[in-house]
Design brief:
There is one protein chain. The protein has helices at residues 45-48, 90-93, 95-103, 123-126, 143-149, 155-167, 186-193, 212-222, 227-234, 240-256, 284-294; strands spanning 4-9, 14-16, 24-26, 29-30, 57-62, 76-79, 109-114, 133-137, 171-179, 199-204, 259-261, 276-279. The chain is an alpha/beta fold. It has a single domain (4-206, 239-294), classed as Alpha-Beta Barrel (TIM Barrel), CATH 3.20.20. The strands form 2 sheets. Strands 2-3-6-7-8-9-10-12-11 form a 9-stranded mixed β-sheet.
Amino acid sequence: METHVTLIDAKSILSKSNLPVCDYSANPYVGCPHACRYCYASFMKRFTGHAEPWGSFVDVKHWPEIKNPKRYAGKGIFIGSVTDPYNPYEERYGRTRALLEQLSGSGASISIATKSDLVLRDLDLIRSFPNARVSWSINTLDEGFRAAMDEAASIERRLAAMKAFHDAGVRTTCFISPIFPGITDVAAIIERAKANCNLIWLENLNLRGGYKADILGYIRTAYPELQALYHDIYARGDRSYWEELDAQMRALANEQGLAYLRDDDAVERPFEAPPTIVNYFYHEEIKRSAKVNARRPDRSK
């Protein structure tokens, strides 16, 4: 897919956030060329005025240099809430690196979400931040299915980047999301990632967005044997699949000596401890908070 790139001026790069995981969010780009078919961030088109399909445009932000970065000491900054800060255009424009350089020495705590291994370029800079964390979205080990869903880095490259950061002493998260019923092998992903991450987040596929028809059409064509299951879940509201998976994951955690939670309010475990599995199947309150925040325009533009 051809990507339309536009350079834009932003009033600032940091926005106060209602998300429970941070105080501020930062998105050095608008849009994302990874073109994930299930991307929740496609709602951004309501605020940006883009008519192009989600995944076919990227706005590259330029903002005034952050004044007094030390004011963010002790604050949590989430980089990449509605874009991938390490999308392929970061290699050319370096806006995420510019943000990190401006925040360097501020005392802020940063979290980065990506599907790329380009983040390896900034490993030394990222690990200079207190309590830095990098998360990679991995919802399959099947490259065929991955390629049908996104145009990001391969799963093996994501896992290799996760290992490099973990080996360097940076906290890492394997974000198993979205879990596709009957397709995502959660246990297999946990087995691959558990030695190289501190947290494993589980989140179910949410088909309330505008991509619902596309995903269901894909299931109808590629996995016709799963049509009845998807109808039960997404038309009838049957939660039994998630309840059963919840029970299976709790049993797996118990067998392997992993902590298992339904929220992330617990005290952080030591870096050397086995990873904690956090189940977000039932985080309706978090979803409502995020939804309210999502409806607010990005004031940094």
